Amino acid sequence: MAIAVASRDATVGARLRVVVTELAPPARVMRARGGTVVALRELDAPIDARALAETVRSRVAAAVGDPALSVGFGGPKKGATGAHLAMLQAEQAVAVGRAINGEGHVTAFDDLGPYCFVLGRPESDIREFAERILGPLADDRHADLVKTLDAYLRLHGSLNAVAREL
């Protein structure tokens, strides 16, 4: 599995690699860039990935003094290609998680819902997907579905907010 740890604080970002290396063994830091550190952990048995990510977030946040520290995780995946994919998932989870949930949270790639369908895709693919899947909803018979989808996307997937609005 891969865990991405991110801080918007530049002074914290500079120390993250060292702190994650010290506090998250046996995970190995694979890359660090732009205030985000990504570590890989090989799993011998099933684990509670969310609990592990929460533990890493709380320990690293306390060590660097940044309560707004955010964590994303992806995987587990098998092999070198799988490890690369898990790292990308972790980076996407922390980036999108911060945008949706704010700072200081743990987000799994699997939590991203419909956002994971468009991450890293060219705009032409996204447009084609939307036209193919959503195009049939454009007629008047499905106006309520379109209104619901619009609210869902505008309100960042918050089901409670959508229910209140509709």
Q: If you had to describe this structure to a student in words, what would you say it looks like?
A:
The protein is of the alpha+beta class and 166 residues long. The protein folds into 2 domains: 2-111, Reverse transcriptase/Diguanylate cyclase domain (Alpha-Beta Plaits, 2-Layer Sandwich), CATH 3.30.70.270; 123-165, no CATH class. It has 6 helices and 5 strands, in the order E-H-E-E-H-E-H-E-H-H-H. The mean pLDDT is 89. The chain has helices at 10-23, 49-64, 79-101, 123-134, 143-154, 159-165; strands at residues 2-6, 28-33, 36-40, 70-74, 106-108. Helix 1 packs across helix 2. It is elongated, with a radius of gyration of 18 Å. A 5-stranded mixed β-sheet has the order 2-3-1-4-5.
Describe what is shown at a glance.
The protein has 166 residues and is of the alpha+beta class. It has six helices and five strands; from the N terminus they run E-H-E-E-H-E-H-E-H-H-H.
Total of helices = 6
* Main sheet strand line-up: 2-3-1-4-5
Radius of gyration: 18 Å
CATH class category of the largest domain? Alpha Beta
CATH superfamily of the largest domain: Reverse transcriptase/Diguanylate cyclase domain
Which CATH architecture of the largest domain would you pick?
2-Layer Sandwich
Number of DSSP E strands: 5
**What is the string of helix and strand elements?**
EHEEHEHEHHH
- The general outline is elongated
CATH fold call of the largest domain = Alpha-Beta Plaits
Distance between the termini: 39 Å
